[in-house]
Specification:
2 domains; about 170 residues; alpha+beta
Length: about 170
């Protein structure tokens, strides 16, 4: 075999190996993209013999504002579409838990069809407070889709006096 043939075969072998490495590199890159595009690693996926779980009902955490008024805390939670009878407020000395649910069912019967529609909404929020409150004196009311909760403090703190500061 001539030296040209040997050199040519070596070059072909290098090209084949380089192609192999490129394929392996692309394969690894593809697997890494697949792995990191998931919300959790594949080992944590739950595979059941009968399929996946049905979707859970929507539970949301309502937006909440808490203000320290000195003698009490005031919390405002957004609860649109939920009546006051469907809201549950429980209090301890250090927190208030608010939950509620609302379900609706619509049904329309006509000559050739039956139309059913159901919806379910629920919410839950635990509001911790930095100072001890008096659970028995808490007041709550719903006004225009907003739940207002007044939580009297056990030992009221003084509100800071307002002082005008000159801007230089």
């Amino acid at each position: 075999m001539s030296s040209k043939n040997v050199e040519k075969k070596e070059q072909e072998s290098i090209v084949k190996r380089t192609g192999l490495f490129e394929d392996v590199g692309r394969s690894i890159e593809h697997e890494m993209e697949r792995f990191f595009s998931r919300p959790w690693p594949p080992a944590f996926e739950l595979r059941l013999p009968f399929g996946s779980f049905p979707p859970l009902p929507e539970v949301r955490m309502p937006l909440c504002d808490v203000v320290d008024k000195g003698d009490r805390y005031e919390a405002n939670l957004e609860v649109p579409g939920i009546e006051k009878e469907q809201i549950d407020v429980k209090a301890t000395r250090n927190s208030v838990e608010v939950s509620g649910e609302h379900s609706e069912k619509k049904e329309e019967k006509r000559k050739n069809y039956l139309y059913n529609e159901r919806s379910y909404k629920s919410f839950y929020r635990k509001i911790p407070v930095p100072e001890e409150i008096i659970p028995s004196k808490i007041e709550a009311r719903v006004v225009n889709g907003v739940l207002n909760i007044s939580m009297p403090k056990k030992t009221p703190s003084k509100t800071d006096e307002e002082t005008k500061v000159e801007v230089k």
